[in-house]
Structure formats: C-alpha cells, structure tokens
Amino acid sequence: MKFVFNTSVIGGNIENNQAALFAKNKKTNEIKKTTSEIVLICIGRKANFDNLNLHLLNIELNKNKKIPVDEYFNVIAQPTIKAIGDAIDGPMLAHKAEEEGYLLANILFDELKNNKKKKAHINYDLVPSVIYTHPEVATVGYNEAKCKELNMNFKSVSFPFAANSRSRTIDDYDGLIKLIVEKDTNRILGSQIIGNNASDLILPLSIYVANNGSSKSLSKIIYAPPTFSEVIKEGAFPSFGKPLHL
C-alpha cells in the first residue's frame, strides 16, 4: 500500500483496458501518470439541502455548510425546528446521528413530561471512526496533530500486529496500534488502529478515553491468548517504558 500526499488527480482515461490517472503534485507541479485495473473514488460527502427551501424559513448554513443548532438541537433561526445527523456539524457517521437521535428523543420527552429542557451531552471527540478495508482502520479521540494544535504534553507509542500471536497464526499481520498518552499522567487521549478487527478493538479504547483512563490501568487487563485484543495490552506497556514483547 502506497500513500501519495499533497497531490490532486487532474484527469484520467482508459488505456489498454486499464485506468490511467494523471496526478499533479501541489508543491512541485510535477505531473505523474499511474495505471491500475480498478479505481476507487472517495472524495467525501456533503449534506444535500437543495430541495428543502431553507431560505423560506430564513435558515442560513454556517461556514461548514451545515444548519446551526444550539445545545438542544434547536435550529438557531427557527427554535421550533430540530436538526441532527448530517444536517448539523460533526462527523457524517451513522452512529453519530443515531446517538443524536437518542439524545433528542430524551430531550423531547423531558420537555413534554417534565416541562424542562435537558442539554445534549454528546462529546464528538469520542465518536469512533472506522474504515472497513483490509486491514481495517479505526480511530477515536485525539491524534498527534490535534495534540500539537492544543499544545498538549503528550507521547505517542505503538505496537505492531506482527508481534501478535493471533496475527502470526493466520499469517496476516499488517498494521499496528497507536496510543496517544498524556506524559505526566499516562491518561489515554486517543488511539489509532490499523489491523485485523480494528473496528472491534477500538471499543475498549473509546471507553478509556471517555473515562480518562490511564495506560497503566489498561495494561492490567488480562486478555485471553491468542487473540487480536492482546495488542491493546501490549500497546499500553511502552507508554510507561515497559514494553513486553518488543
């Protein structure tokens, strides 16, 4: 797998039953040609408000092209209207929208039954993101770039799937687990995983990030071998200078 950064695809065609793409480097302006059997296009998504006639309700989109809402999911311009999911700010993920729907239902219930408002408590930093490729990719919480942006005192540690017994037994051991940890407290700030079952392995990391858990505490959990989940324990050890199988 090869990643090419700072590059834009500027054109393409079919040559000898293969896809030919032309990409331009944004820094050097150099144009390179790449051929392949299959091209997977993933350019992102955006919310579609074209037929909603929002202007008739004086609802204007924000800088992210989303509907502005308050902490109760009320549309700022029209407080009697609620909005959640892809229509508002935050990651465009089904589980994020589902959680907002659950919270909104509770807000409406409190308004109707108890005649009081209950604020939404969702923390968007805790929304896990998963890419269902092979190997899988999963993330939660802060990454290194975010920690640098916030001037946080952190360290990044990792453990390769190549040193995981389950991965070795099935001869499929590409990937690693990375933990972003606060230096002074070993509090887990985030995690990124590339490897087998990353979509499932990210869950315990989400729990630890949500509850300000430490990597030392994470390392004390006993995992049954041979399982992919052992990479979580192994990934925690290097954060306080005690790698186990490295």
TrEMBL record:
Organism (species): Plasmodium falciparum (isolate Dd2)
Family according to the record: Belongs to the class-I pyridine nucleotide-disulfide oxidoreductase family.
Q: Which cofactor does it need?
A: FAD
User: What range(s) does the Pyridine nucleotide-disulphide oxidoreductase dimerisation domain occupy?
Assistant: 127-234
Its lineage reads:
Eukaryota, Sar, Alveolata, Apicomplexa, Aconoidasida
Q: What is this protein called?
A: Dihydrolipoyl dehydrogenase
Gene Ontology CC entries for this record:
mitochondrion; oxoglutarate dehydrogenase complex
Keywords attached to this Swiss-Prot or TrEMBL record, sorted alphabetically, are:
FAD, Flavoprotein, NAD, Oxidoreductase
PANTHER family, per the entry? DIHYDROLIPOYL DEHYDROGENASE 1, MITOCHONDRIAL, DISULFIDE OXIDOREDUCTASE
Query: Does the keyword field hold Chaperone?
Result: no
- Asked if the Swiss-Prot or TrEMBL record annotates the protein with the keyword Flavoprotein, the reply is yes
Q: Which residues does the UniProt record annotate as the domain FAD/NAD(P)-binding?
A: 3-101
Which GO terms fall under molecular function for this chain's record?
A: dihydrolipoyl dehydrogenase (NADH) activity; flavin adenine dinucleotide binding
A biological process (GO) of this protein is: 2-oxoglutarate metabolic process
Query: Which Gene3D superfamilies does the record cross-reference, listed alphabetically?
Result: 3.30.390.30, FAD/NAD(P)-binding domain
